[in-house]
Automatic annotation (TrEMBL), chain A:
Signal peptide: none annotated. InterPro entries: FAD/NAD-bd_sf, GMC_OxRdtase_N, GMC_OxRtase_C. Keywords: FAD, Flavoprotein, Oxidoreductase. This is GMC family oxidoreductase. Gene3D superfamilies: FAD/NAD(P)-binding domain. Residues 450-571 form the Glucose-methanol-choline oxidoreductase C-terminal domain. It comes from the Bacteria. Belongs to the GMC oxidoreductase family.
UniProtKB/TrEMBL annotation, chain B:
It comes from Acetobacter estunensis. This is Gluconate 2-dehydrogenase subunit 3 family protein. InterPro entries: Gluconate_2DH_su3.
Automatic annotation (TrEMBL), chain C:
This is C-type cytochrome. Heme c 3 binds at C328, C331, H332. The keyword Repeat applies. SUPFAM superfamilies: Cytochrome c. Residues 1-20 form the signal peptide. It is found in: Cell membrane. It comes from Acetobacter estunensis. Binds 3 heme c groups covalently per subunit. The lineage of its organism: Bacteria, Pseudomonadati, Pseudomonadota, Alphaproteobacteria, Acetobacterales. GO terms for cellular component: plasma membrane.
């Protein structure tokens, strides 16, 4: 077997893997990065105008995971047989250099500080009985103040556009009144409002909410980041989610970090390298490196390394831990074990509005991360007492560029014909006048929502698929319905001729066929208690301390915000701890 | 004259001339043409599926990695389950079409004594409506509704994708909607609130919509 | 260490020449490496995908096709047998070790002003640090009589300065030592005039230094279809509106607020100028800014906002305007100002206003990638439009950008398509 050696091996080339690689290189470690998909460079693959292709991009999934080689199985309940996720639907993991960080939209939040200690905050405010039976409500074990420098660093690397509210405790702008104080402004000013965002801003303000510009990793002007990587400005072309940005304005590992890494002789990227397992010693207390399959030669290759970083997509990280025997697998029947525990998602529903025929929303104009949002019903920003649920949702107009194939499946709305006579009229009359408002909310963790290995189906390499056991729960459905009901006053204020509110239905099951969001989380969560978390507060495995697992897998519950900003901050936070503490004395950073 | 002109002429000739399907048999082709037109008929709003060469688009899609099922997880065992857990048949899209058309034709002959293409428009609509709404089993466990949804999705793709893939002939699908296509630059328009976007559609290969 | 020892061993084994002299100091080799970059030896002697300095770069000259030779220290196929004196004579005087004359594609008239010490350093770098390679470039296909080397000797006698003369020319007095350094770099190792100074019918540069008159760096003849622009202070077609920092940024990274590199200049920056010190880059910029406009009257470029206003309204009635909006405006903006340094401006860009539109036409055909540089690691691609636009359309859109925003280039609207 071929053997490669490096100080550190990094699995995955998305944001988590790229940030850790850059940080470890700055610390002087030699780094091998493994990516199972193809190499991707925006200057090659993303060039104008070939990348402006809805069929090839969002519909045929150019940048997404190749399910033919490996997928997951899904069931709603523990007593069901899980079936393979054979074609992409509800969520879209990435593949190839950049990972999901290449095809994301660009919404770049920090965190609502209350969400980091949600369990403590809910109990302090509403009492222990407020937490329903079967809900695994947990704290992250880290505070906003500790993470703040790393949020700041990530924004500067991403070239994030936004409007601050408070800097060092002083109110400085018209940003989100619910957002915590910052140490610095955004590196770029907020993007312009598209028409529908402007309408939403005005209406939300008039009904007494607190609208703000979404923080967006879509550059509002030319920008050079601390790594020397350059971005062009977003021109609202609308090809963000599912595309590499030909304007180099949507932040991606490919545009913002990889250019610097690729010039660095101490860094080596190996693409088409499918990692099979982390190699552990017999006691399963120390990792020796990883073994991957070279997809071109079909030969197994060992990478020996003193430090192993799992920086793949959320559930791929959990899958690798389960396949390798890192940490104790979660057993839902006994409610014991931690790897696979607290698998979470988000609740997202879309409401629609239609403007009069002389008002053109021009939905094709858009940007993935931009828009206007309100946080009045997110996190702990409102009183949950009367409602009896935990969690919340930001609400926003995030017009990311509605293209015709995607729009055609919705056509003229729920009541309009889907095809045949009348379809075209309804669609043509509404396409340029419609728009959407999303409630993009939290999702709590439950005892019966988890990840483990599937007993039946295998991937192309003979390894068991990961199994998801997941369904919506009453708490989250009620949360979604409440928040969506709070959209109605905005709808009435907008000047829309018609609107439809989209919400989860009581008892509704999770449907794998229809896209919702790719914001999966948990499964290997961080925390202070090794019996309820797989990772300590520095994202270090409690059980195998030379393995760090970076990603949204660390979230104990699904938050209302988009996860990428939090993932990037946690990546820099973990990297900082590795650089300043771990490398001097490798071992557990927190005694277990 | 550069190679470009020859290339363009070749595309134009193929775009406007008769099309010989590469995947579908003549009988299947008749079904596809009729069913697409029924789903997306020519009317006062704009061209129909035939005008937009949607059937040609679908035929070409059959010979892509997607059509061959290479983008899907197709490993056994194949087991039935609740619809919300997604597609579970062993059929790649091209096989789904082959099976679905055969089943649909059998259904039409049995119920109406004719091939789908030979039915009058109202009956065609009735047949497709029953496929859409009812759990009729066409063949090999293929529910009619699943075949219907695939056909509808691909018809809409053919009407609205870049002409590069053989449909959306002369960008007329986009013109109908007022979608500008592959220009992908709205810096001047992002803050013009309310009016229609005035510029016509353009395709990846530079083709522009007539009169726009 | 291995890199140092390896060529020595080869030289000993294959050439049988015992190196009595000690291996030069690391500092001297480093100095040589810096000079090799300042002199951009790679631009003409390295091909992408092959080892450095193995030659094979084609030059299509009026006299035929010439391939640059392998200048690695390989004794058979490179210059491994050259002594330092022979090396210096080739670089500065255009005479090969066998006494034959080099073709004037080799800018020895410029290199002539490098000092003996610099020759020593350059020789040390090439001889002791470059990896030898047995790569054999394709044979040149020069047409008779110039396929014979002796007419080159006559050319050399007629047009090339002797090193002593050349050095004296560069030792003219400057008030500012930085300008003096810049003059030396530009006129000497940088050999900027090789492309940017027009050549006479007999192929010599019409001026070798600023002192030779206004032809110096006034814009050269096409090189591989690219037209090297004037580096003098013409307001519209030269560097008249480029500040010192713009020039420095351009030479360091290929990108500036005023324009981005493409064509032959990309490699000159990639292999050469990006490695120069800040001090040397500023010296070059200061010197270039002392060269007065060659062309009179020197009309000023004044931005004209009418086109931007029309395009923002959706008025694309001007010829080429719709093509511009469909193909170019995404990156270069309807106001022509681009998004520098990522996407360069077309408004007021000297390349756009150049007398000849050839570079623009070629750029639309071939596209271009601005590669990663050490201080600017991002690569950017302008796609080729050869499959998207016809010759007529290319002519229309090129005429458009040359005409609007105050560009008003001389022949705008008069271009004849090649169809």
């Amino acid at each position: 077997m071929d053997i490669l050696r490096a100080d550190a091996v990094v699995v995955g080339s998305g944001w988590a893997g790229s940030i850790l690689s850059k940080e470890l290189r700055e610390a002087g470690l030699s780094v091998i990065m493994l990516e199972r998909g193809p190499d991707r460079s925006t200057a090659v693959e993303g060039a104008y105008p070939d990348s402006i292709d809805e069929l090839r991009g969002a519909i045929r999934h150019r940048l997404y995971q190749d399910l033919s080689q490996t997928t997951v199985t899904i069931r709603n309940r523990m007593d069901q047989r899980a079936l393979p996720y054979r074609s992409l639907g509800a969520f879209l993991p990435g593949e190839g250099v950049g990972g999901a960080g290449l095809h994301w939209s660009g919404v770049h939040f920090r965190v609502a500080p209350d969400d980091l200690a949600l369990r403590s905050n809910v109990i302090a405010r509403y009492g222990r009985k407020f937490v329903p039976e079967g809900m695994h409500l947990q704290d992250y074990g880290v505070t906003y103040e500790e993470l703040e420098p790393f949020f700041d660093k990530a924004e500067k690397v991403f070239g994030t556009s936004g409007e601050p509210y408070r800097i060092n405790g002083k109110i400085v702008g018209k940003g989100n009144v619910f957002s915590p104080s910052r140490s610095d402004a955004f590196p770029l000013p907020a993007l312009k409002d598209v028409y529908t965002a402007y309408l939403f801003r005005g209406a939300a303000e008039r009904v007494g909410y607190h609208p703000y510009s979404l923080p967006a990793a879509n550059a509002s002007g030319p920008y050079t980041n601390p790594y020397g990587a350059q971005m062009g400005p977003c021109n609202f072309c609308g090809y963000c989610s599912g595309y590499d940005c030909y304007m180099y304005s949507k932040a991606s590992p490919n545009v913002n970090i990889q250019p610097a890494l690729r010039q660095d002789a101490g860094f080596r990227l190996i693409s088409r390298a499918h990692v099979l397992r982390v190699d552990l010693d017999s006691a399963k207390k120390h990792a020796r490196g990883v073994t991957y399959l070279d997809l071109d030669t079909q030969r197994e290759v060992k990478v020996e390394a003193a430090l192993v970083i799992l920086g793949a997509f959320q559930f791929h990280n959990v899958h690798l831990m389960l396949l390798s025997g890192i940490g104790r697998p979660y057993d839902a029947a006994k409610n014991e074990g931690v790897v696979g525990r607290n698998f979470v998602y988000q609740t997202i529903t879309t409401s629609h509005a239609w403007m009069p025929q002389d008002r053109f929303t021009n939905q094709f104009i858009g940007t993935g991360g931009g828009g206007v949002a309100i946080d009045d019903f997110n996190s702990m920003n409102f009183d949950h007492g009367p409602h009896g649920f935990i969690g919340g949702s930001p609400v926003w107009v995030n017009q990311a560029g509605v293209k015709p194939i995607a729009a055609s499946s919705f056509g003229g709305g729920k009541d309009a014909p889907r095809w045949g006579k009348g379809f075209k009229r309804a669609f043509a009359d509404t396409y340029r006048h419609a728009f959407a408002i999303d409630a993009h909310g939290s999702n709590m963790a439950y005892r019966d929502a988890y990840l483990d290995l599937d007993p039946t189906w295998k991937d192309a390499y003979g390894q068991p698929l990961l199994r998801m056991t997941y369904d919506w729960h009453d708490n989250d459905i009620r949360m979604n319905r409440y928040v969506v009901s709070r959209i109605e006053p905005i709808m009435k204020e907008l000047g829309a001729t018609k609107y439809e509110l989209g919400m989860l239905q009581p008892g509704q099951s999770f449907d794998t066929r229809v896209y919702k969001t790719t914001h999966l989380g948990g499964g290997a969560v961080m925390g202070d208690d090794p019996t309820t978390s797989a990772l300590n507060r520095y994202l270090q495995s409690w059980d195998v301390p030379n393995v760090f697992v970076i990603g949204s897998n660390a979230f104990p519950q699904g938050m209302g915000y988009n996860p990428t900003g939090m993932v990037a901050a946690l990546a820099y936070w973990a990297a900082h701890q590795i650089r300043t503490t771990y490398l001097k004395a490798p071992g557990p950073l927190v005694p277990s | 004259m550069g190679g470009l002109e020859g290339w363009r002429q070749a595309i134009a000739a193929e775009t406007d001339g008769p099309y010989t399907p590469r995947f579908f048999t003549p009988e299947e082709w008749r079904f596809i043409e009729a069913a697409c037109e029924c789903l997306f008929p020519r009317d006062e709003v704009g061209p129909g599926a035939r005008d937009l060469a949607v059937p040609r688009f679908i035929d070409r899609q059959m010979d892509t990695p997607w059509g061959r099922g290479a983008l899907w997880y197709m490993m056994a065992p194949f087991e039935a389950g609740p619809p919300n857990l997604g597609y579970q048949l062993p059929l790649a899209p091209r096989d789904l079409y082959r099976t679905g058309i055969a089943g649909a034709e059998r259904y039409c002959v049995k119920a109406h004594g004719k091939s789908f293409a030979d039915l009058d428009t109202d009956t065609q609509v009735a047949v497709l409506t029953s496929f859409e709404k009812n759990p009729i089993d066409l063949d090999e466990g293929l529910p009619a509704s699943l075949f219907f949804e695939q056909l509808l999705a691909n018809t809409l793709e053919g009407a609205f994708s870049d002409p590069l893939y053989g449909g959306n002939r002369h960008l007329e699908g986009w013109v109908m909607l007022g979608f500008p296509g592959a220009r992908a630059d709205f810096m001047d328009w992002v803050d013009q609130y309310g009016p229609a976007y005035p510029l016509g559609s353009v395709a990846i290969n530079g083709e522009t919509a007539k009169g726009a | 260490m291995r890199r140092l020892a390896f060529p020595c061993v080869l030289t000993l084994m294959f050439a049988g020449i015992a190196h009595a002299e000690p291996v030069p100091s690391a500092a001297l080799i480093e100095e040589g490496r810096y000079l090799a970059r300042a002199a951009d030896c790679s631009a003409c002697h390295s091909v992408e995908g092959k080892a450095a300095y193995t030659g094979g770069v084609p030059f299509d000259l009026p006299i035929g096709r010439l391939y640059s030779p392998n200048i690695t220290p390989d004794p058979q196929h490179g210059i491994g047998r050259y002594t330092e004196q022979q090396f210096a004579r080739a670089v500065r005087e255009g005479v090969r070790a066998d006494g034959a004359s080099l073709y004037p594609a080799m800018p020895y008239p410029s290199y002539a002003r490098m000092s003996d010490h610099e020759m020593q350093a350059l020789y040390a770098w090439f001889h002791y640090s470059v990896t030898p390679s047995s790569e054999v470039p394709p044979a040149s296909t020069m047409r008779w009589p110039l396929s014979m080397r002796w007419p080159m000797t006559v050319w050399r006698w007629m047009f090339a300065p002797k090193p002593m003369q050349a050095r004296q020319m560069s030792e003219r007095s400057f008030d500012d030592p930085d300008v003096a350094r810049g003059a030396y770099l530009v006129e000497g190792p940088g050999h900027c005039g090789a492309c940017h100074t027009p050549r006479a019918i007999t192929l010599q540069e019409k001026a070798l230094t600023a002192r030779d008159g206004p032809a110096y760096l006034a814009g050269g003849d096409a090189v591989d279809g690219w037209i090297p622009p004037s580096l003098r202070q013409e307001n519209r077609t030269g560097l008249g509106r480029w500040g010192e920092d713009d020039i420095v940024s351009f030479l360091r990274s290929g990108r500036a607020q005023t324009g981005s590199a493409f064509g032959g200049m990309t490699n000159a920056i990639l292999h050469g100028t990006q490695y120069l010190t800040d001090h040397d880059l500023h010296a070059i910029a200061r010197y270039l800014r002392t060269l007065p406009p060659a062309r009179q009257p020197d009309l000023k470029w004044i931005y004209d906002a009418r086109t931007a206003v029309a395009l923002r309204k959706g008025d694309v009635s001007a010829r080429g305007a719709r093509l511009y909006v469909d193909n170019c405006a995404a990156c270069h903006r309807t106001d022509g100002r681009g998004y520098p340094p990522v996407f360069p401006p077309l408004a007021g860009n000297p390349v756009v206003m150049s007398e000849k539109p050839d570079s623009l036409i070629k750029l639309l055909h071939t596209g271009a990638t601005l590669p990663a540089m050490q201080t600017a690691p991002s690569a950017f691609t302008m796609p080729s439009f050869a499959k998207r636009l016809s010759e007529r359309e290319i002519a229309d859109v090129v005429s458009f950008v040359r005409d609007v925003w105050g560009n008003g280039a001389v022949d705008a609207g008069k271009m004849v398509p090649k169809e």
